[in-house]
């Protein structure tokens, strides 16, 4: 196994590169919205270190910690010793739409637009099946207190592999659909997306779906990895880098996604003739398996709203549950009132929605931005 920025995989030439080393990039928004299932080479890339070179023949995944039987599994064993489960899941970086927060006040983190999100069909053994083979049932009296710690091969902060953890009950819930993915959209995992194995934690922020998985550990506490303890947490807008140190250990790690949405058509400051017909398009999703129930669009600053059409079911999807995936939406108008600002908000089946004011949710890491989406449209006569 090796890690070297000179041995990075090939990537699509049309990506917006937000960081070169480590490589972090998002596809064009228009392309992202063309297909409900994102092609492997159009899936956003979020890396924290060089992409490791891994020899499948010598690779072993370790399961250890408080578990009764410590085990090591080869790729062949993961593919053939367990039932293979397929799950469609959208992954989203917690920093999606971070640049909008940066426009208010500087934040630390990769400057993502609204395309740090993609949807794929993943396949591999359920994590629960692997844990039961390792004897997790012997810990049943402690299940509600335990955590599953994941560590990758990529060496990041503190000279440790990228790491994260989830509550054990999420891993063991059959309908939680946590899997050890060995395939992505019918092919082996691309190197950028975790070859040969990554965990997929549907409904959670992408940071919990650890790539290049090396170790699974059952323990009584959350991961002590930097990316669980000192990152991906929310703070009040008043908290800055001079006052945050005492708060890291007091603040919970982000797990489930909040309600999210984006406008992918038109783009900001796009020119649309006043009075012309137009179809606004975008995506929406929520965490925890909560489906989107409504997307509202306003053309007058939020004074009035139109309900957009959701059309997940019309995407000619395979017969697979889409509860963990995004929804596409569109809203047509006969007369575009250019110049104007188009606003979008989404609702999920838990009656959760998106806050109007981004200033109220600004945070020093620029994560979990789900404020109302605003896109300016200009006419032939004026520019906002």
Shape: globular
Classify the helix fraction into a percent range.
under 10%
Strand order of the largest sheet: 7-6-16-10-11
| Beta content | 25-35%
Main β-sheet description: 5 strands, mixed
Per DSSP E runs of 2 or more residues, the count of β-strands stands at 25
Rg (C-alpha, Å) = 21 Å
Low-confidence stretches: none
Oligomer: single chain
Summarize the helices and strands and which ones pair or pack.
Elements: E1 2-3, E2 16-19, E3 24-26, H1 29-32, E4 45-46, E5 52-53, E6 61-65, E7 71-73, H2 75-80, E8 84-92, H3 98-102, E9 117-125, H4 127-133, E10 147-155, E11 161-167, H5 168-172, E12 179-181, E13 183-184, E14 187-188, E15 198-200, E16 213-219, H6 226-229, E17 260-265, E18 270-271, E19 278-285, E20 292-298, E21 306-307, E22 309-310, E23 327-333, E24 340-348, E25 373-378
Parallel strand pairs: 6-16, 18-25
Antiparallel strand pairs: 1-5, 2-3, 3-4, 6-7, 8-9, 9-13, 10-11, 10-16, 12-15, 13-14, 17-19, 19-23, 20-21, 20-24, 22-23, 24-25
Summarize the structure.
The chain is mainly beta and 384 residues long.
Question: Your description of this structure?
Answer:
The chain is mainly beta and about 375 residues long. About 10% of the residues lie in helices and about 30% in strands. It has helices at about 30, 75-80, 100, 125-135, 170, 225-230; strands at about 1-5, 15-20, 25, 45, 50-55, 60-65, 70-75, 85-90, 115-125, 145-155, 160-165, 180, 185, 185-190, 200, 215-220, 260-265, 270, 280-285, 290-300, 305, 310, 325-335, 340-350, 375-380. A five-stranded mixed sheet has the order 7-6-16-10-11. The longest helix has 7 residues, at about 125-135. The mean pLDDT is about 95.
């Amino acid at each position: 196994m090796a890690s070297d920025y000179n041995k990075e995989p090939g990537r699509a030439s049309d990506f917006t590169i937000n960081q070169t080393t480590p490589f972090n990039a998002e596809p064009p928004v228009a392309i992202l919205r063309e297909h409900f299932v994102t092609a492997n080479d159009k899936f956003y890339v979020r890396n924290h270190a060089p992409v490791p070179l891994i020899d499948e023949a010598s690779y072993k995944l370790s399961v250890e910690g408080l578990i009764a039987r410590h085990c090591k599994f080869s790729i062949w064993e993961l593919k053939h010793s367990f039932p293979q489960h397929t799950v469609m899941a959208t992954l989203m970086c917690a920093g999606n739409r971070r640049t909008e927060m940066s426009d208010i006040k500087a934040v630390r983190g990769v400057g993502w637009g609204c395309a740090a999100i993609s949807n794929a069909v993943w396949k591999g053994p359920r994590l629960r099946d692997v844990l039961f083979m390792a004897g997790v049932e012997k810990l049943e009296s402690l299940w509600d207190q335990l955590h599953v710690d994941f560590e990758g091969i990529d060496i990041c902060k503190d000279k440790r592999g990228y790491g994260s953890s989830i509550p054990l009950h999420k891993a063991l819930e059959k309908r939680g659909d946590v899997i050890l993915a060995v395939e992505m959209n019918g092919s082996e995992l691309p190197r950028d997306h975790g070859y040969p194995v990554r965990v997929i934690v549907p409904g959670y922020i992408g940071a919990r779906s650890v790539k290049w998985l090396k170790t699974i550990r059952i323990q009584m506490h959350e991961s002590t990895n930097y990316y669980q303890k000192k990152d991906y947490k929310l703070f009040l807008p008043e908290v800055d880098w001079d006052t945050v140190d005492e708060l890291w250990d007091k603040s919970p790690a982000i797990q489930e996604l909040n309600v999210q949405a984006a406008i992918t058509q038109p783009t900001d400051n796009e020119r649309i003739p006043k009075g012309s017909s137009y179809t606004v398009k975008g995506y929406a999703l929520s965490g925890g398996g909560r489906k989107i129930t409504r997307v509202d669009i306003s053309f007058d600053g939020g004074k009035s709203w139109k309900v957009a059409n959701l059309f997940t079911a019309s995407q000619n999807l395979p017969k697979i549950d889409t509860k963990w995936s995004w929804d596409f939406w569109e809203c047509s108008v006969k007369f575009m009132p250019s110049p104007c600002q188009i606003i979008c908000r989404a609702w999920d089946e838990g009656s959760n929605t998106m806050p109007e004011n981004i200033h109220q949710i600004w945070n020093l890491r620029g994560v979990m931005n789900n404020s109302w989406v605003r896109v300016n449209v200009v006419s032939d006569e004026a520019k906002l």
